[in-house]
Write a structure and sequence with these properties.
The protein has 22 helices and 16 strands. By secondary structure, it is α+β, with helices and mostly antiparallel strands. A hairpin with a 3-residue loop joins strand 14 and strand 15. Helix 5 runs antiparallel to helix 18, helix 17 packs across helix 18 and helix 20 runs antiparallel to helix 21.
Length: about 550
């Protein structure tokens, strides 16, 4: 395996500061029910894991029988970009030669994965691999429903020995639920902080020199509206509560948003249920002000646009996403419209930054897969084969990118595949991933580097809830009812698209109380107490 160790050296600071925070942080979700439809159809997960290892443990990974040709299927999150099928055709050439198999890929779009993900398992759809992530992409919930195949250490070592050597022990610990691993975590430091890519020409036009705080961001939004320009494709909810020092709680309803915790204060072990937090009322009223001013389209809740669409088409003045995506789409916008001078801003710049756990991105095996061993072997190639990593992350060499030395790349044509735009995040591997070589640096590149340096030098202290993930299986009925109630009331509120904020808040509160939110909160607090006690004991 080709080694690119200077990538690791570049990450040493972040890793050193992060490992102390992450070590020992497992998950608190409960047992996989034995009577779920998925578990019934294929036997218990652990029985299958043991059976697979019994069949394969006498063989080395290199001697596993691959004489039967197999066609595997994988689900990813997002949308298929141009040239995707051509790129994966190249990946299949490698898989055919090495493992006598191919893989096809279906996508669950950003707008549909919340509703369709669980249906893949309840309907017992025939597929093999699927992207997953703690909290925001259905990891804990799917484990509790018996949808993921449990990965024993022997199974991993037999069918993916290279992965076993690469993934840090702390990452495997984070992936454990009741002592069992259900996903292969990614290996890359990632900051849990969204930023904005914003048109610098409009900042200059409105006389706004910087956006480093909530008040400055709000000033920019209102200036855009006064100029007849949509500021964004919706309200900056995450920027608001992050500016208050809060973070989403893993496994809580609505991707963790309904219950927050004070991530900046390690001594604060309370949960902040939104309907009991005055800050949420304040936010909703501010969003009503911004929406009425015209800071975003009144039809935003019916839009199927991707996050970057508004910025790239000139419909909005900015976009909100992680720093890497904002940089990539900002560069694309500047290439097509240099006069826009898109830049990056962090309205939460004063606060230390949280580093995501390794299970914020990962890949799991469907418990109903008929080819679990080969699926694990395929994942081993995606994770540790530099040629496959390059293809999945960058596209085809010579068409989408070109190599600069052993460990860097230069984009030739980003628009037809996109750097890290096709959900390759589940098998990120910092040991072999290339970094971008920038021949003609721009102001956007300098801003990105300065922001990353600042973040790496200002990582927040660990909080015990950074590693907590709620298991909703004991209150699954109430949890589902809460999610349904959120869908009816929550999105209009956080987008300011209600006629009466106070009445809409009371309607949401009543709906959540009726759905059983107090049962959910009681169970969450009970699990949190046990989780804290376990951490303190260790």
């Amino acid at each position: 395996m080709k080694n690119r160790m200077n990538k690791v050296l570049a990450l040493l600071l972040g890793t050193a500061m992060t490992v102390g925070m992450l070590t020992g942080c497992g998950n608190s979700a409960g047992n996989t029910p034995a009577d779920t439809p998925a578990a019934d159809s294929a036997g218990t997960g652990q029985e299958q894991a043991d059976a697979s290892v019994d069949e394969g443990s006498q063989e080395s990974a290199g001697a596993v029988d691959t004489s039967e040709h197999l066609d595997l299927k994988m689900y990813l999150i997002g949308d298929r970009t141009p040239d995707f099928d051509e790129v994966y055709g190249k990946i299949n050439e490698i898989l055919e030669e090495k493992l006598n198999c191919s893989i096809s890929v279906d996508f669950l779009s950003w707008g549909e994965h919340d509703t369709k993900y669980s249906l893949l398992f309840s309907s017992q759809e025939d597929f093999d691999l699927i992207f997953t992530a703690s909290s925001w992409c259905h990891y804990e919930q799917t484990v509790s429903l018996g949808g993921f195949y449990p990965l024993s250490e022997e199974f991993i070592q037999t069918y993916a020995p290279d992965i076993w050597e690469v993934v840090p022990e702390v990452a495997w610990d984070q992936a454990k639920i009741d002592g069992q691993i259900y996903m292969v975590p990614n290996y890359q430091n990632e900051f849990a902080q969204d930023v904005l890519a914003i048109r610098g020409d409009l900042m200059e036009k409105y006389g706004i020199a910087q956006i480093t705080s909530w008040d400055e961001l709000k000033e920019f939004y209102l200036a855009c509206a006064a100029d007849g320009m949509y500021a964004s494709q919706g309200g900056p909810w995450y920027q608001y509560f992050q500016a208050e020092g809060l973070a989403t709680t893993g496994g809580a309803p609505h991707a963790g948003e309904l219950v927050l915790y004070h991530a900046q204060d390690p001594d604060d072990h309370e949960f902040y249920y939104l309907l009991d937090w005055d800050g949420f009322t304040d936010y909703c009223k501010q969003m009503k002000e911004l929406a009425d001013a015209g800071c975003w389209s009144s039809d935003v809740l019916n839009s199927s646009d991707e996050r970057q669409t508004g910025l790239l088409t000139g419909r909005t003045a900015g976009m909100v996403w992680n720093i890497g995506s904002c940089k990539n789409f900002g560069k694309q916008a500047n290439a097509e419209h240099p006069e826009w001078n898109v830049t990056l801003v962090d309205p939460v710049s004063a606060l230390p930054k949280r580093v995501q756990s390794y299970i914020n991105n990962g890949v799991a095996i469907n418990i109903n897969s008929k080819h679990k061993e080969r699926a694990m072997m395929v994942l081993n190639e995606f994770y540790t084969n530099p040629a496959v990593q390059d293809l999945a992350m960058l596209g085809i060499e010579g068409k989408h990118w070109e190599a600069v030395g052993d460990d860097q790349y230069k984009v030739i044509d980003e628009s037809n595949f996109g750097v890290s735009s096709n959900c390759n995040w589940g098998w990120n591997n910092a040991d072999i991933q290339r970094t971008e070589y920038i021949e003609d640096r721009t102001a956007l590149d300098d801003t990105f580097d300065a922001m990353m340096e600042s973040w790496n030098n200002n990582i927040k202290a660990p909080h015990v809830f950074d590693g907590f993930n709620f298991d909703s299986s004991k209150v699954s009925t109430q949890f589902a009812a809460v999610e349904a109630a959120m869908g009816n009331y929550y999105d209009p509120l956080v987008s300011g698209l209600v006629s009466d904020v106070d009445k809409s808040l009371e309607d949401l509160r009543a709906a959540l109380e009726s759905a059983g939110i107090r049962d959910v909160l009681a169970e969450m607090n009970s699990q949190a107490e046990a989780f804290i006690a376990e951490k303190q004991a260790n």
